[in-house]
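Table S5 (text form). Sequence records supplied for joint modeling of the two-component complex.
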Amino acid sequence: MIFVSVGSMLPFERLVQAMDAWAGAHPDTKVVIQYGNGAYKPRHAQGFAMIPAAEYRRLVADAQLFVAHAGMGSIITAIQAGKPLLMLPRLQTLGEHNTDHQLATVKNVGNRPGLYSAADEVELVATIDRLLAAGAAIPAPISPHASPELIANIRGFIHGKKVA
Amino acid sequence: MPAQKPVRLLAIASGGGHWVQLLRLRPAWEGCAVSYASVHASSADDVPGCPYYDFTDASRRSLWRFPLVALQMLWLLLRVRPQVIVTTGAMPPLIALVLGRLFGARTLWVDSIANSERLSGSGDIARRFAHQVITQWPDLAHGNDPAYWGSVL
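The corresponding structure-token record, covering 317 residues in total, follows.
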């Protein structure tokens, strides 16, 4: 099963349409798409506008490959689940987000093992076929919590200590 | 030592990555009386045993929702009466932070790790209102405003 998610806020038709077309061309592979409040409804894949958090995490855990926008929710969920993630960043020029920070995310966070990205829909589809054929790397396990340094500093702030 | 009353803390974030990052900070407020707030009712399942409140999401694309969100935040603050507010963004929690500061809360803005090349627009505004703004990228730190204290990853 391939799970596709556009995240919790804005529509992302480019990703939904590309993955629905992929599902149409690969009827033997189950594809589930969380498509948000986009106008395009999947015709070949199984589609849900929104998926509750627990169910969303279960779909990521059950998926062979997770395909999503380059949002931190998707990235952190994939890493925590140890699932390969293929990202298509939202572009400001296409009205897919308010800024191009997802391009920066791909550049600065996407270099971890098990995280892949595609520049456009053509590369996305080609990368899926390559990852399914050759096998994808799996993200290295991480702690369920932020860095001890960050935790300690915030704890200090909460209890009114000055941070050096 | 006499037992101290636990700090009343509001941990608040919008949905998606903002909420996921907030959850990764949980050990920081161990021992506090924490209430959570986010945009999906189902997120209550992520924080069993803690009071959870939901609010309407809004962004710069939906400015017309702001009066409603501001009223919700006011109502939230009156119920929780936080002494400390910690948020990982975005816009609606910024309103809670500003109002909460007026009510005397200590306020911390943790800019999302998604903002790796410049601070978010909301984070920039938060610099004017929060007691402390932190970035998760060392290169974006500017002394203590914003400061770099580490990252959620």
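Note: The interface with chain B takes residues 7-10, 50, 52-54, 71-77, 79, 98-99, 101-102, 104-105, 107-109, 142, 144-155, 157-160, 163 of chain A (CB under 8 Å).
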